Structures are given as structure tokens and as C-alpha cells.
Amino acid sequence: MNILNLLLPAKCVVCASGGEQLCTGCRESLPLLLPPLCERCGAPTAWPVARCRECSGRRLAFASARAAVEYEGSVRRFVSAWKERGLRRLAAEAAELVVSAVPPPRVAMLTFVPPDRERVLLRGHHPAERLAFELAARWDLPVRPLLAWTRAIPHQRGLSLADRRRNVAGAFAPAAMAPSRIGLVDDVYTSGATAAVAASALRRGGAGRVDVITFARVVR
Ligand SMILES: [Zn+2]
Ligand SMILES: [Zn+2]
Known about the structure:
Blueprint: H1 3-7, H2 24-29, E1 64-70, H3 73-83, H4 89-101, E2 109-112, H5 117-123, H6 127-139, E3 147-149, H7 161-168, E4 172-174, E5 181-189, H8 193-204, E6 209-217
Parallel strand pairs: 1-6, 2-5, 5-6
Antiparallel strand pairs: 3-4
The protein binds zinc ion (2 copies).
One zinc ion is lined by residues 38, 40-41, 43, 51-52, 54-55.
């Protein structure tokens, strides 16, 4: 944790009002992603569909992806405070929001997109791992690291969808055997490229079905 965070009084990371790291007003106004959704990728849709415009025709190694909130203005501020400023208590807030919006996955275990060593050293914590542990406690599931990076990945920020896919292709390898039904946790679902590549590695490690759970999701 940044030393400044210990010295300064808590401020809401969204609206900067004093008191809590996420004030009640902001917590209640975050844009929850509620049905109807695309059954596969979790994009909001006008009515329930098996595949949507965003994911139809794409080979996705996961069976479903669900997120608590849309990645927009206030959620962006929340996520950047959580990830970049290392406000770890926000992982518990994120988990509460996931549990309120996403039904518990029918899986034997949770795992997470593994930490990129360089970024962990920079931040001193790994948001996806923390979120997986917070969710595992609430859903009464075990959590285990099952994936490893095969190489360093350049930042995804600012890349097109096609470039994101190329950027992460083959990025993960199974690090341990996966159970047949596994939940894969990450902080933000942007294009689904990372989730798909990680899910594919879990399937190589023995998983038959992978359900992805993230805190936030980009809505196109
Ligand atoms: Zn606020
Ligand atoms: Zn879809």
C-alpha cells in the first residue's frame, strides 16, 4: 500500500467525498450488468440470446463470461484506484458487487488469470487473485492457481481487438491439473481475448468447462 493511503483520511475513489473508500451513493449507482445478457459472453442484449453480435463467429474457449458492472466512468475510477493505487480493500467491495449481480457459478473451484511478475512487483499485489479469494470465501469454493505465463505480454491497453488476440495468443500454460468445471476470475473483461486464451490453457490442463467471472466488463 502506498504510504500516502495510510496517512490521508479515506476518500471515495469515485466521487472523492470523505469517509469511505467507496461511499454508499456511489456504490448504489454503479452500473450493474443484469439480464437480459448474451448467454455466452455476458454482453447486455435486448433479450436473452445464445450468442450476440460481439461474440458470434468467435472461437471462445470459455462457456460463459459474467461481470458485475459495466466498465465506464465511475467503474474506471474504482478499478484504477484498486489496481494502480493498490487500495486492496476495494477487492472486498468488488466481490460484494459480483455476488450481488452474478449467480454463483456451478464449478468445483475458482482460479484466476495469473499475475504478470513485472506488474506485481510494481504494484505489490495482484487484483485478480485477491478478487478470486474474496469470491471463493463468499461462494464457499476452493481457489487454486492453475495457470502460468509462458512469456511476458506487452500491455493490452490501446490495442485493437485483433491485436489483443495476437498479443495474448499462447500466453498461458496449465500449471496444475484443473477440475472438470472451473471458474476463471479476472478484474476486467475487455475484449475477451485474455479470458479465451486463459480458458484454453485450463482446458489443456483438464477442464471440460470454464466459466469466466470478472468484476467489470467493457460494453461495446
Ligand atoms: Zn462516492
Ligand atoms: Zn455474446
